[in-house]
């Protein structure tokens, strides 16, 4: 039950406090006064999405806070949720839901602890059943019909349906795997042949990063062999051999050593220089031998160069086909090896998946048949209850029926399609709601459904925003009686323009729009007995009600309660 609602800086509301009673609370007021604004604010603490446009002009933040006392039937569920979310409980078991909206963010709090919007939604479904102005239009959707019947069927039906839904997800996943397999045998054979050829080609090539580097270096050496021979030959000649015109470096150094050695005894300082020259001579002789060996090893071999070129061409060709480097080629090799293995066992995999899919499908069909039996049983009970409530809503001549169509295909909800049908007049055939029901009839059928579910769900608080749309006269009186009856079980908040409904109020709240210093404000006022009479008379007769209207209003109030 909603105990307290505090709204600040929300749309036209500067500050408003609503403290509804436990029975029938009626909200009336002129169009645009803010009745829907209050329900929008309430929706925010029940998990609806927020918008910065809700913030009152000139303010930085809007705040909505609601205090709830869960019904006896919902207290256990809510306690479990709070424990699961590690949230504290108030001493009196009340719940404080707070929503703060600023320009860039929205904050949700449960008992002063920040939570996600999804938690608000989960909790909201346990606290309030809200019926918006046009929700009765959802009755035109056959998907909604199936959901309503299953909800009426209770835990057993819903658990079977959930099991079917889980199995259907598995069924779809397996079917997707099957679809991803190559179905065409010719295409599979072609792909197998191509991948096998590519794999064999890479295997036969036996490529390595090290070999490619060595071959590249060798090729560079072979194609430059003449330059090498000329340069190394010249170096050897100048170092060691010399010629008719110029002695070698070693011969020249030998002459220098002879000259210095002859005068070492004259000046000891020359000893060090002489020794360095002797060491240099030894090094030059060693270098000359290495140069000579290198020169003898240089061999112009066209056949070797051709072999290197051919081997490197294999590297280049495979890089052109399968990757820009040996590393990438190896990655491609691993990829096609895995793909080959997959294709080679594809038939076995397909057979395995088909068996798995068919097994899941058989289980879904089995459960769907069980679900259908339960739906037929629930359908009869729902028809009887709806018919009872429709009779109480001045629709006794209308026949209501739930038509179940058995499907050949499995779905997440079983193998049934469902449709609510009515016969508006005796002797006329049953037809879908969207073909024959008027707005007023849809409103009353929705109210009948709400009445049925209120006895099952024990939600605690029910909110109706103009559930009486499209009705008048005796039908309006019956709707008023039904809302009053609902308030014996649940707290009811109802926005209405009908005097018949307003007259049933246990607490009558009026919203008015006022202007002060160029600003518009929405003001909430709880009406006393005389104010209530006057307000209902205004609904009947306009802003200046006649004595007759006032008398009529009194009769409606005191004759109905």
TrEMBL record:
GO CC annotation = bacterial nucleoid
Carries keyword DNA repair? Answer: yes
Q: One GO molecular function term?
A: ATP binding
The family database entries (Pfam families) matched by this protein are listed as:
SMC_N (PF02463)
Q: Which SUPFAM superfamilies match?
A: P-loop containing nucleoside triphosphate hydrolases (SSF52540)
BP GO annotations: DNA recombination; DNA repair; SOS response
Keywords, sorted A to Z: ATP-binding, Coiled coil, DNA damage, DNA repair, Nucleotide-binding
Stretches assigned to coiled coil:
164-228, 267-297, 336-377
- Entries under PANTHER family matching the protein: DNA REPAIR PROTEIN RECN
Cited function: May be involved in recombinational repair of damaged DNA.
* Name this protein carries in UniProt: DNA repair protein RecN
Species annotation: Natranaerobius trueperi
Tell me the classification of the organism that encodes this protein: Bacteria, Bacillati, Bacillota, Clostridia, Natranaerobiales
